[in-house]
Design goal:
By secondary structure, the protein is α/β, with parallel strands linked by helices. The protein has 24 helices and 23 strands. The protein folds into four domains: about 1-40 and about 150-170, Orthogonal Bundle (DNA polymerase, domain 1), CATH 1.10.150; about 45-140, OB fold (Dihydrolipoamide Acetyltransferase, E2P), CATH 2.40.50; about 230-435, Rossmann fold (3-Layer(aba) Sandwich); about 445-640, Rossmann fold, CATH 3.40.50.300.
Amino acid sequence: MDNRTPVDNLKGIGVKSAELFHKLGIFNCADLLNYYPRAYDSYERICDIKSASVGEKNAILATVKSTPKIQRYNNKSIVSFFVTDSENVFEVKFFNAPYMLKSVKVGDRKVFRGILRAIKDRLLMDQPKMYLVDEYSKLEGTIAPIYALTKDLSNDRLSKCVRQVIDGLPLPDDYLTSEELKEFSLSDYRTALKNIHFPADFEAQYYARRRIVFEEFLSFVRMAKEGAKENVNLPNGFKMIEVADCKRLQESLPYSLTNAQNRAVNDIFKDMSGDYLMNRLVQGDVGSGKTIVAVMALLMCAANGYQGAMMAPTEVLARQHFENIKTLTDKYNLCFKPVLLTGKMSAKDKKEALVSIATGKANVVLGTHAIIQEGVEFKNLALVITDEQHRFGVKQRETFKNKGSEPHLLVMSATPIPRTLAMIVFAGLSVSIIDELPKNRIPVQNCVVNSSYRRKSYEKIKEELDAGHQAYIICPMVYDNDEYDPNLKSVEQHTKDIKEYFGDAYRVASLNGKMKPDEKTRIMDNFKNKNIDILVSTTVIEVGIDVPNATIIMIENADRFGLSQLHQLRGRVGRGSDASYCILMSDTKNEETLKRLKILNSTNDGFKIANEDMKLRGPGELNGVRQSGELQFSIGDIVEDGDLMLLAGSFYEKAADRLHDIKGNLIDFRTI
């Protein structure tokens, strides 16, 4: 067995089983080891009812006191019964599980594991997992990994395969010395790989995660630094002159650019008219007006007779850019001849787009990563605008060089990271910072509340809808997952609940990243066109979606997201001239978590939020449902793990030669 051994060679995995792993992007042993748990399940000590913590997960030993009964409510079946430990009682409820009528009997003695809630003067546990006492005793005090799954692939099966690889795969020696491991507070690699999947406790998981994040960041720094060397001082083959078109557009706009926007535009114009190719990062907070800066760069390019391309991370956002460019072109008589290019276009539309690009008929190309794929030929591409997700670097530049041109590069970033981190992450790029918001923007009003304020929150949403506005409701899960945490809101179930509460007078729709691109586009278009009042969604709406009429966003289980991600989500409202609101719903009792959430109440400045978040986070804190920010890594978070990015950057500077000579070690072992 080695890191390239296909998963279907593992014991217990056949051809059909392997297809399930392939759906998760797992094709070989390296992929499996790098498929880290999304969370961990810590099995609590068994307790009685009196000792249990209300509002938290407990493992309570109790005996069934009453015969289970079934009730029907709005197409749901609810099976309920009471359990006791001889002194105290609580009610147990199961939804859509009629088989419980026969499987639970009076006198059964079991461990009931779930979140204990207090409603008025009674205790209740919904959807608990039930164990025999001996069965739970073996799990008590242990920690189990929880992986993101696909249909028909269980968590137990995936974790057994990971264990098989960890036990059977020979790993290279660690390239870090024992002194360096101690100095950096990192686990050795073998221990880290075991403990990231199967930690004995959360301290072991913390140090394992630090090492894995360090490796991921070091691999990234290595690529970034090597790419930067090849991108420095490349001769400008597309030298441009400043044109009247840009000035005319600025004068025609119904608003004035901020000083920060003007500085960024001037930096770009200076770069593109200089002796060397532009390599520039424009870093701006949510809603700071980065898009109009990108439009100015594209306009200068088109007015000089060249082609420009703007890549977006999603088809929804690419289409939004295309529609915006078309609107501006028609309204202000600009020289743009835009075309849209995405991977999911029909063969006919794609062929027409490719011809327009190759002949130069189209001078602005808006699209996804499809823009740089094989078969796309440009006539005279002079500018590429991308976002940090694409990590556009030397390989992508080589793609255009092979097609006959090396374009200017402009990277747009909304990830609020300190300048010291930006210099490492965006090595080789000059930096322009847009640190002002447009003058007509009213700061978003925020509140952090628990579920006892749910009705009031819904009434506030109704108030905004009745005023002709729209609302977002964000959930951390696509589907219900009771095994993971029954209290996490899912888009699937919450959409039904919202429809039931708001009734037919309001139009409710749902959106998630697992939908087909055409379906996502249709729903977003309907929302933008005011055909949907409430959009229940996952974080798929986080990046760049611009609907000025949306004035309120409610984020469920807010404690499960990083602060920077919450800030990005909050940025979906407050994009027009109307007052906007952000409701952060969380039932967490953790004081440190509540303290972090309340940072959002005190400021709308993403850079301040990121810095405060980093100060407050301590050892052992787990990330939420998903990493925050636009710059995505498989486990690391550029904001929350900023100290490790700085460490990886400084270590690379000292040990570049040593790392360059390493063959077959972790830095080459990972699938990048």
